[in-house]
Amino acid sequence: FQSNPYKLLSSSKVLLMSSINEGTPMVLLESFALGVPLVSSKVDGAVEIVKNDLMVGAVWIESEIELNSIF
Q: Which is it for strands 15-17 and 58-61: parallel, antiparallel or unpaired?
């Protein structure tokens, strides 16, 4: 738990979101506000935000194998 996650998030080079199910992922919106690029699985909430051109720098991960190949 971080009482102020923005300091940590703003110094990040990328946000990795590997969720299987999301509504509206707040961490995605927070990272967008801070200009942090996204690497994410294609969960509905993330897809809708990116699809509406609200976020640039998004990379979609299609499988665990693809996710493992990044690191």
A: unpaired
The two tokens of residue 9 are 């998030």
Please give the DSSP secondary-structure letter assigned to residue 38. Answer: E
Q: In residues, how long is the chain?
A: 71
DSSP code for 7: H
| pLDDT tens across the length of the chain (71 residues) | 788 888 889 999 988 888 878 888 888 888 888 988 888 888 888 888 777 655 556 777 777 777 777 66
The strand pairing partners of 41, in sequence order, are 61
Residue 30, both tokens: 């927070």
According to DSSP, the residues that pair with 59 across neighbouring strands are 39
Q: With beta carbons less than 8 A apart as the criterion, state whether 59 and 38 touch.
A: yes
